[in-house]
Write a structure and sequence with these properties.
A hairpin with a 5-residue loop joins strand 5 and strand 6 (about 85-95). The chain starts with 13 loop residues before the first helix and ends in a 7-residue tail after the last strand. It has helices spanning about 15-25, 60-70, 95-105, 110-115, and strands spanning about 30-35, 35-40, 45-50, 50-60, 70-80, 85-95, 120-135, 145. By secondary structure, it is of the alpha+beta class. This is Pyridoxamine 5-phosphate oxidase.
Length: about 150
C-alpha cells in the first residue's frame, strides 16, 4: 500500500486551516506530565484567542498538581477529517479578574456547576502557545503555523 499524497498547502493559509480544525474539533486532548509518565485527557476550552487557549479546571483534579510541577503542556485537536493541530506551550493560572468574569459570564456550564466565580475550586489555565503545528489527515508531515498570525 502506498502512502497517500496530501494536497499541497499554501503557507499563508496555515493559520486559518489550523483555526478551522480547532473550531471543528472543539474538545482537544491535553497532555501533561505526572512524574515520569505522560497523562492525556480531553478538556473543554472556555475561551480561545487565536492559539491561546483558556481551560477551566477544578483545583482537586490531578492535572492541577501536574501543571504546578511542570507547566509545559500540549493540546491536540483532531477534526472529523483527521486533520490535526498541536499547540505546545506553557500553562499558567489566569488571575485577571476582568477576564475571568468575561469567561464566567460566557459559560453557562461553569455557572451551573460552580455557582459562583469565587468558588475556591475553580481554576482557569491559559495555555500560551510556543509552537503550533498543523497536519492533514495521514500526511505524516507537520507544518509550522506562525503563532502571531493565529488571530
Amino acid at each position: 500500500m502506498s502512502r497517500p499524497t496530501p494536497e499541497p498547502i499554501e503557507p499563508g493559509l496555515l493559520p486559518e486551516l489550523a483555526r478551522a480544525v480547532m473550531r471543528s474539533a472543539r474538545f482537544p486532548m491535553l497532555a501533561t506530565i505526572d512524574g515520569d509518565r505522560p497523562r492525556v485527557r480531553p478538556v473543554s476550552p472556555v475561551r480561545t484567542d487565536g492559539f491561546t487557549v483558556d481551560i477551566a479546571n477544578l483545583k482537586d483534579y490531578h492535572k492541577t498538581g501536574e501543571i504546578a510541577a511542570n507547566p509545559h503542556v500540549e493540546l491536540c485537536y483532531m477534526d472529523d477529517r483527521h486533520d490535526q493541530v498541536r499547540i505546545a506551550g506553557t500553562a499558567e493560572v489566569l488571575e485577571d479578574r476582568a477576564l475571568l468574569q468575561e469567561i464566567w459570564d460566557a459559560n453557562p456550564l461553569l455557572r451551573r456547576y460552580l455557582g459562583s466565580i469565587d468558588n475556591p475550586s475553580l481554576i482557569v489555565y491559559r495555555v500560551r502557545p510556543e509552537r503550533v503545528r498543523f497536519m492533514r489527515e495521514w500526511a505524516l508531515e507537520y507544518h509550522e503555523v506562525p503563532i502571531d498570525e493565529g488571530r
